[in-house]
Amino acid sequence: MTTVFKIGGSVIEDSAMMESFCREFSSFPGRKILVHGGGVMASELQESLGQRPVKINGRRVTDAQTLKAVTMTYAGWCSKILVACLQKYSCNAIGLSGCDADIIRSNRRPPLLMDDGVSEIDFGFVGDVRKEGINTVRLAAFLDMGLVPVINAINHDGRGQLFNTNADTVASSIASAMKADLVCCFELDGVLRDIKDPTSIIPCLSESDFESMKSDGSVADGMIPKIENCIKAMRQGALSATIRNAMSINGRTGTTICL
């Protein structure tokens, strides 16, 4: 059995949280894959380079200069600091982009039609990943060698073009393709019924519950794509999908998606 974990840049940015996660992840039993983001750090690098980060509906518009910045962040600093921390705890990790060993291919995202029905937004070098683009044979080969793939959000199209992709979607697609368990980690203990009450964890979240919470505003912003990708993973072949605290991945708390 394989477990796919996904962490965001907030875990990598917080040294104590990253240390705790890497320690627990290293002791987690079985075959495992780690997918990571790093959006906040990418934006900081862009600004230091004189670039202005542009996002639409939470997605980063990626021109040629932005692609360089996110590649440096995700495939460079974020990847290597995570791998180094995991090696500290005797987890034999290997940092990978989608182009490495051709493990993930993506397609360029088409322009987005805006609400006016006329205007279009071109996201630039942004790729969409589907489970069909996951090279499960190559990933299994790494796992068979006793290696732990640490995968960032930079992928390619097989024709020499890199793409910036969404890390939640990458994790969802890998879990679906590998028929694995998916664990999405962030700074809370699960999806909360009341965002102001950290104890109001929803142990089992159905799709209908999710739609109701979106309607009444009790779930919003970055939590929405996390849940959507968990639901998608379950529908496309993942064995399970859970959202839990990055500081307690071996614990019993968390929200399981129940279809």
Describe the model:
With 259 residues, the chain is α/β, with parallel strands linked by helices. 37% of the residues lie in helices and 21% in strands. It has eight helices and 16 strands. The chain has helices at residues 9-13, 15-27, 39-48, 64-88, 136-144, 167-178, 207-216, 223-235, and strands at residues 2-7, 31-36, 55-56, 59-60, 93-96, 107-108, 112-113, 120-121, 127-128, 148-151, 154-156, 162-164, 181-186, 204-205, 240-245, 255-257. Strand 11 (154-156) and strand 12 (162-164) form a beta hairpin. Helix 3 packs across helix 4 (64-88) and helix 6 runs parallel beside helix 8 (223-235). The chain is globular and about 45 Å long. 44% of the residues are buried.
First-to-last CA distance = 21 Å
Low-confidence stretches: none
Tell me the Rg in angstroms: 18 Å
Helix content: 25-40%
Number of helices: 8
For the largest sheet, list the strands in their spatial order.
5-10-2-1-13-15-16-14
Largest sheet: 8 strands, mixed
The coarse silhouette is globular
- Structural class determined from secondary elements: alpha/beta
How many β-strand stretches? Answer: 16
Beta fraction: 15-25%
pLDDT averaged over residues: 92
In short, what is this structure?
The protein has 8 helices and 16 strands. The chain has about 260 residues and is of the alpha/beta class.
